[in-house]
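Q: Got a minute? One more chain.
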Amino acid sequence: MLSFEQKAALDDYVSVGHRSTPGWLWQSAAYVTTLLGLKQIEDGLTGNLGEIGVWQGRYLYLLGLLSRNDEKVVGIDSFVHSPDPQGFARRVENRFKLEGCTEGKLTLIKEDSTKLTAEKVQTTVPGRFRLFSIDGGHLAHEVLSDTELVSQMMLPGGIMILDDILNSTCPGVIEGTLDFLKSPQGQNFAPFCLVGNKLMVTDKASADHYRDFLLQIIHDNKDASIFRDTAQTISDFPDGVYPKLCGSDLIVITWSGDYLISDNGAPVLIRTKVCDMQEMDSPEVQLPPVVSLFERATVAG
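A: Always. Here it is, folded:
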């Protein structure tokens, strides 16, 4: 398991710390990613963690905080779309040096992901992956290429996290994702959760395991603001009936208090309303510490 200090750093980052790293990340996505990463640790699943499309490392650092001592973190980004490619890469590397639990774990592969092979990635950093975020190019062929690459490197029980799946400015993400899921290679995988503009995908044999875990978390914590809306929506459906994507039951987590800090850290979006920073700290937006919530669920289970 993670050390007490690492758990504290993880709690802090999910609750407020992620605001200090430029980038885009819905808090609900950070919260659920953490729950799933901790579940993998409880299950005894060991593997590396990675991301295509790093920007300045807001989500990649969360993956770093979820990594154990014997696990590595891989960031793949050519940084060609960054206004300061060398500066962006340096900030990511420096961020991983701030905590003892992440120092020395990061490897940055500064290349175009669509031109990489699984063999080259795993030669650079040996081992397969248990968590991998895909947030690279947003054209359909780029998304398809990235998902095909990452799917070759996943462990059984590993989770691919596809970003911007519902971003209306990037319809290619939807097209590329569906192309992958309907391909011969993608037919071995199943989406199981949609949260904070991210689609969680795992191998078909593991989908029910993670889906049931999230359903139990939602049921047991339906008074927590992050799960209240979702619990009500689930209760409105007939028992055992859920939204489907490519034939797979999907847990759709929606939260009326969700927010997305813009890249410059100024405006905050809560659904369709722009508010000030103080509103983020109102009771409606407060969350129970994610590590504590997970550990309570583990004891209850």
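A: The first helix runs from residue 4 to 15.
Q: Perfect, thanks.
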